[in-house]
Amino acid sequence: MSKIRLTKEFRFEMAHALWNYDGLCKHIHGHSYILQVTVIGQPNDNEKDPKCGMVMDFGDLKKIVKEEIVEKLDHAIVLNQKARNQHLFEIPQMFDKIHFVPYQPTCENLLLDFAQKIQARLPENIALHKLKLNETANSFAEWYASDNL
Ligand SMILES: Nc1nc2c(c(=O)[nH]1)N=C([C@H](O)[C@H](O)COP(=O)(O)OP(=O)(O)OP(=O)(O)O)CN2
Ligand SMILES: [Zn+2]
């Protein structure tokens, strides 16, 4: 049976800084990120199933991506763990949504992290096909399953 790709788009506001970077992005600054998540699979052909005709309910995909990524990162600060500093936690009303990650929080590395998190939550019959992350209106990175076999 034929396969179909489904895409859902998410938006979140996130601050980050690139540790040891040689440009302006070494400073804490924010982006309005746009994340497109594309999955691939065969539409359900069981007429008795409420999900008949669907590869995956858009709502189920939304739940996974919101729980794994959007709810955690929206209005958060993401910093390389090399920048970890106890003083930041002394002002919890500003810094209780700070995430230190074991990588440089570039578009590329965020996508590698997102791919792992989404893949771990997808049902067996559905595969992650592609991710696209816009950091600005004219800068984006893409992850393709076919590049990572
Ligand atoms: N390969 C990457 N390069 C850069 C990343 C990244 O994640 N991957 N990130 C940054 C900065 O965080 C920031 O996103 C600036 O990016 P840039 O597109 O250079 O933004 P500008 O506003 O300066 O670009 P304009 O084309 O002038 O709008 C830097 N590089
Ligand atoms: Zn940036």
Automatic annotation (TrEMBL):
The keyword Metal-binding is annotated on this UniProt entry: yes
Q: What's a Pfam family in this record? A: PTPS
Q: Which SUPFAM superfamilies match?
A: Tetrahydrobiopterin biosynthesis enzymes-like (SSF55620)
Q: Which family does it belong to?
A: Belongs to the PTPS family. QueD subfamily.
Which EC class is the enzyme in? lyase
Q: Does the keyword Lyase apply?
A: yes
As recorded in UniProt, its EC number(s) are 4.1.2.50
Give the protein's recorded name.
6-carboxy-5,6,7,8-tetrahydropterin synthase
Q: Which UniProt keywords apply?
A: Lyase, Metal-binding, Zinc
